[in-house]
Amino acid sequence: VDQMNFLIRKITPAGVVSTVAGTVGVLGKKDGIGTHAAFSVPYGLAINAAGTHLYVGDQANHVIRKIALATSEVTTIAGSGEQTSKDGNGLQAGIPSPGSMAFDADGMLYITEKGGGKVRKMTPNGDITTIGGHLDVNGSPTHVVVDDEKNVYVTFSGMGKIKKYTPAGVESNFAGNNTGTGAEDGPAAVV
Fold it and tell me: Full-prediction pTM beyond 0.85?
């Protein structure tokens, strides 16, 4: 994401940069093909397992967008555009300020909700639920990854920690000591 230029860019292995979607300096919320689409502070990216679609957390629009990589067609697939966190299907769900995203092996998309302090899961059919997090946005979840066992790891930048969510829904502190700053080495649960 080229966040402040409101663009989605591609860099080839040879270093060639091109624009996939959006127009330089034009912010908004518009579906369309390539430069006919508009974003507002895009943040997170994730590519589906088939490599056919790029998912974008359109942070200031409070929605998830999908880009067909073959055509650069952008569609809004989730989020009502409101700043209220709400479980639901597709455009009926509320996803305030979506951040980082990652897919698991089953095609579940995990989303950090920076504006609501939560960690969300979107099924392949668009159902969005909350798997954890806190209502305090000062402890904002920022980045997410999923391991081969489908454990979800999320950084909470304001809390100085990484939380782990198991496939069974168990939340635990994985690393960090709640101080918010510092760079100490040591046992994960202490540092």
Answer: yes
Q: What is the pLDDT of residues 2-60, one digit of tens each?
A: 999 999 999 999 999 999 999 999 999 999 999 999 999 999 999 999 999 999 999 99
Nearest to 122 by CA among 146, 156, 139, 157: 146
User: CA–CA separation, 78 vs 55, rounded Å?
Assistant: 10
CA distances from 131 to 18, 68, 81, 183 (A): 36, 27, 21, 28
In the sheet with 141-146, reading across from the earlier edge strand, the strands are 141-146, 152-156, 161-165, 171-176
For 106, the enclosing helix (H) or strand (E) is none
Task: Report the C-alpha gap between 6 and 39 in whole angstroms.
Answer: 5
Amino acid present at 99? G
